Amino acid sequence: MTVINFGIVGLGRLGKIHAENLAKNVPGSCLIAACSLVEEELAFARNQLGVAKTYTTYEEMLDNPSLDAVVIASPSSFHVTQIRQGLEKGLHVFCEKPIGLTVNEIEQIIPIINLHSNQKFMLGFMRRYDTSYRYAKKMVEDGEIGEITLIRCYGIDPSSGMDSFLKFAKNGTSGGLFSDMSIHDIDLVRWFTNSEIKKVWALGNNKAYPQLDALGELETGAAMMALDNQAIAFLVAGRNAVHGYHVETELIGTKGMIRVATIPEKNLVTVYNEHGANRPVSKDFPERFKEAFIDELTEFVSCISSNRQPEITALDGLYATEVAIACKNSWLQNECIDV
Ligand code: NAI
What we know:
Layout: E1 4-9, H1 15-25, E2 29-35, H2 39-49, E3 53-55, H3 58-62, E4 69-72, H4 79-88, E5 92-95, H5 103-115, E6 121-123, H6 131-141, E7 148-158, H7 162-171, H8 177-193, E8 197-205, H9 212-215, E9 220-227, E10 232-241, E11 246-253, E12 257-260, E13 271-273, E14 276-278, H10 285-288, H11 290-305, H12 314-333, E15 337-338
Parallel strand pairs: 1-2, 1-4, 2-3, 4-5, 5-6, 7-10
Antiparallel strand pairs: 7-11, 8-9, 8-15, 9-10, 11-12, 13-14
Helix pairs in contact: 4-5, 5-12, 8-12
The structure holds 1,4-dihydronicotinamide adenine dinucleotide (NAI).
């Protein structure tokens, strides 16, 4: 098997997971370089993952002539610049969501990605690689629930993650609740319906964390969406699930319904005790999407090795961000917005 030599930029909440997967869990990948601003994270890469070279600037890492590909897991505001720099060095690029924070910067990076069509580019919408979502997608494609009429999506982070979110939000701009969190649900809506979102109406508040007002962030948001094919989508995003990490999706079709993770179960265990019969739930995104994070990078390596472009494109990133920004504007302007 050809081995793909990876570098990674960003070793924070998610970068650490990708780094560990590239070093240990993704067949055909070898993590040879890592970049972060934080010395302890670089020491982790060297000592725990055996990464040969670590860097404090992305530009220096890109000068490593042994690299074949780069994974971008830095704050979202750096993504488009780092995509361009990676492509211009001749590397394959896997970038975390969102691809960019503004429509303008994404529209500028797309022609550059297209210009490097011999290199592979993939965006990290990992839910498309989750076993349950793949199972549901196959059922939808096989026509088992008929035509989708409505999708309801919940994406609520655990309240236990608030401290780490505050650090993340202060590091750079997250893009706000809809670009940071709902973007996954927006991608699922597009993926399941094969249709585009054309109109949104969004609301939000910070009742649980009023301190988010000062950061320009939202804790709870909801959006109603109209799709080109007349289906309806309803999204809830939040950062205050006290029970754990709540990602749930419901697909209502003309012939039936599918629900994914109505209770966001950790496993098949039910605990019977003085509190009743209880199902343990996923505590955070690394736990819930552990396998999906491995499978998306395995797919990226496979695309490189077999010389085919990944299914998730920069246009998926553009459309999802356009909808997320429309949600933010709808909330700010208190009106229905055409996408
Ligand atoms: P974080 O704040 O925990 O980590 C950021 C990392 O980037 C740190 O290692 C920091 O040293 C490094 N960094 C910052 N500025 C840099 C620069 N100029 N040059 C090089 N390195 C730099 O952030 P987190 O939560 O890991 O998020 C990173 C990205 O991953 C974001 O775009 C976020 O949207 C995305 N993400 C995606 C998730 C998913 O479900 N697919 C989940 C969590 C994050």
